[in-house]
User: Which sequence fits this backbone?
RNA sequence: GUGGCUGUAGCUCAGUUGGUUAGAGCACUAGAUUGUGGAUCUAGGGGUCGAGGGUUCAAAUCCCUUCAGCCACCCCA
């Protein structure tokens, strides 16, 4: 039994769960398309360097969460833990620098070696958008608005809040980091053990700490907002104004940081309190240095990724699949004719179910179980008259219909 | 990697201070109803009680180990 279980942190998506995922994907794709994002797909594994080089040597994703292995050719391969690095790699591989700006939507599985818990798995799924080649704050607004509209369309906007912050440009960020380190070094003894570790690896993340002692210190810590230089300040203000114009409500969170190294300026998260400890359902920001870091020309970028599992848990029931028509032969002689009729209806665009065995009672039961909209009953009596009995499974009304008129009559069922 | 909680039928759960062949509801199958579904009634199938070891005349129940799931920390979608 144990060996028949899926690998820890992975799950089968049986039809109902899969449909919920599809609903999220389809909604996101459709909304993104309205904003001009075209769907692309990158491989689910890349050379390890693609992620190792871009995500930052100190990030947890790189140091402990990557699924990395050596393939038979001796190449170091990593299952993608996120998709932004892959998209940027694809951008460079395909020589798309001449075609900026580019707007991409993606959808697919990501892999991180973590202990599973609510809203967190080892194989999980994301949709995301990336906008490449736009340095203007208008790009940030457009990207964020896309996310907001998806949440709205999924009917969960009321349970989600947009938190936003600016990390500033490199100069601002470095200046702030120095201030912050100096501040915390002055309170080293009050800092939690984990945060002391963070102080050397990634001091900004102390702002995120859940430790109570840390939080008290953080409350008094210098704010990122106060360290923004003039350019960064103007950029951020323009983004905020744009959000107001776009009708996207937000909350400033000066302690919002990013785990990955490549972010600058705008950082944002759409968060909820309905998913236990997992707050973020969509998270993203601006990454102007990433393309260059990967060896490309300086190219600005901004985007986000959304967790499909998390969104699917929040979203209501997806639209039901179309109800089938049940074709029910009565008697052995009717089998062949029924099969032919079923095929004819399927070619005409109807969803048709025909059971493989059973008498009429069984087949009616099955028709009921699969919530058939109508049953087309074909017996020797009807066949002799080139007709079939058409039964409305909701009202129980039925009537005999010439075989040639079945499509037309079925078309009136909804 | 660390911590807490939980493992009995496909699902949700009973199982009394250890005591014969481990139960219920739902679901499933068949019949009542051999050309008519949903409801009802009847019957049936389905369990190495997560696994391994120990204590005992006797273990689903007590002890140890292990595995898995869930939740939380770290971190993140």
Assistant:
């Amino acid at each position: 039994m144990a060996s028949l279980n899926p690998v820890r942190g992975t799950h089968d998506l049986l039809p109902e769960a899969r449909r919920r995922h599809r609903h999220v994907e389809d909604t996101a794709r459709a909304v993104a398309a309205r904003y001009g994002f075209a769907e692309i797909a990158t491989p689910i594994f890349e050379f390890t360097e693609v992620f190792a080089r871009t995500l930052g040597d100190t990030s947890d994703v790189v140091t402990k969460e990557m699924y990395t292995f050596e393939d038979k050719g001796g190449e170091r391969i990593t299952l993608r833990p996120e998709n932004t690095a892959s998209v940027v790699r694809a951008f460079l591989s395909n020589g798309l620098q001449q075609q900026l700006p580019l707007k991409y939507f993606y959808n697919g599985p990501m892999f991180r070696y973590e202990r599973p818990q609510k809203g967190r798995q080892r194989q999980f799924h994301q949709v995301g958008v990336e906008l490449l080649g736009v340095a203007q704050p208008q790009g940030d607004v457009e990207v964020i608005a896309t996310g907001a509209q998806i949440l709205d369309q999924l009917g969960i906007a009321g349970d989600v809040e947009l938190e936003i912050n600016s990390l500033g440009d490199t100069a601002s960020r470095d200046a702030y980091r120095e201030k912050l380190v100096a501040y915390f070094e002055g309170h080293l003894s009050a800092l939690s053990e984990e945060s002391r570790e963070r102080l050397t690896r990634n001091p900004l993340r102390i702002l995120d700490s859940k430790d109570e002692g840390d939080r008290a210190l953080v409350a008094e810590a210098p704010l990122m907002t106060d360290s923004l230089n003039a350019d960064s300040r103007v950029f951020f203000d323009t983004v905020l104004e744009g959000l107001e114009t776009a009708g996207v409500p937000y909350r400033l969170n000066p302690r919002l940081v990013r785990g990955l190294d490549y972010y600058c300026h705008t950082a944002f998260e759409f968060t909820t309190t309905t998913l236990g400890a997992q707050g973020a359902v969509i998270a993203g920001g601006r990454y102007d240095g990433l393309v260059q870091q990967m060896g490309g020309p300086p190219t600005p970028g901004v985007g986000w990724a959304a967790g499909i599992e998390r969104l699917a848990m929040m979203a209501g029931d997806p639209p039901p699949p179309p109800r089938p028509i049940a074709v029910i032969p009565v008697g052995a002689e009717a089998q062949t004719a029924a099969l032919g009729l079923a095929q004819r209806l399927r070619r005409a665009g109807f969803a048709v179910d025909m059971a493989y065995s059973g008498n009429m009672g069984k087949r009616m039961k099955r028709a009921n179980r699969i919530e058939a909209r109508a049953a087309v009953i074909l017996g020797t009596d009807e066949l002799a008259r080139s007709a079939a009995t058409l039964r409305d499974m909701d009202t129980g009304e039925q009537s005999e219909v010439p075989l040639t008129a079945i499509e037309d009559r079925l078309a009136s069922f909804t």
Q: What stands out?
A: Residues 40 and 226 of chain A are 39 Å apart (CA to CA). The mean pLDDT of chain A is 90.
